[in-house]
Design brief:
Elements lengths: L2 H26 L6 H21 L1
Length: 56
């Protein structure tokens, strides 16, 4: 991985941490029943991108 890819992975990991916190909050307060699924989809997409970056 080059520097740019490493930086992107670092940014994605921080984003995943924030999304996990939002997901926990969304599960505790189900104001919007679709929100946990949306957040989980964002987490999955970020993890997939990390996997692609590590493979390249």
């Amino acid at each position: 991985m080059d520097k740019k890819a490493k930086k992107r992975v670092e940014v994605l990991r921080k984003k995943i941490d924030q999304l996990l916190q939002r997901l926990a909050g969304a599960k505790q307060q189900p104001d919007d029943p679709d929100e946990p699924a949306r957040i989980q989809a964002e987490i999955d997409a970020a993890k997939e991108e990390i996997t692609k970056l590590k493979a390249s």
